Amino acid sequence: VWQRTIDDRIVHELNTTVPTASFAGKIDASQTCKQLYESLMAAHASRDRVIKNCIAQTSEVVKNLREEREKNLDDLTLLKQLRKEQTKLKWMQSELNVEEVVNDRSWKVFNERCRIHFKPPKNE
């Protein structure tokens, strides 16, 4: 399972580092939000890259096993291995959907608390 600590803790992180309006003068919320933004961007990009890399590698394994399977239709061990890899590939692809949900939730929470303190660059 890929690290989602920053996403799992975003509400806590924002509650402890980004002040409510009544405490706004005591903490530099814009710097805190900027750092959190950069951390979220890096974590999301890293997890996306890792998952897509795993999908690419597993897809290649599935492709090779399919080719082998076509040559050896009665090899049950090969069939079992192919099915196992196909299942792993489906799981990884569904993990991308989970990532999207987790990321959307994190950005929603981030924007609720940081929108008045920090504006992300336009190109991201």
UniProtKB/TrEMBL annotation:
<dbReference type="Pfam" id="PF09774">
    <property type="entry name" value="MIX23"/>
</dbReference>
<dbReference type="InterPro" id="IPR019171">
    <property type="entry name" value="MIX23"/>
</dbReference>
<dbReference type="GO" id="GO:0005758">
    <property type="term" value="C:mitochondrial intermembrane space"/>
</dbReference>
<comment type="similarity">
    <text>Belongs to the MIX23 family.</text>
</comment>
<protein>
    <recommendedName>
        <fullName>Protein MIX23</fullName>
    </recommendedName>
</protein>
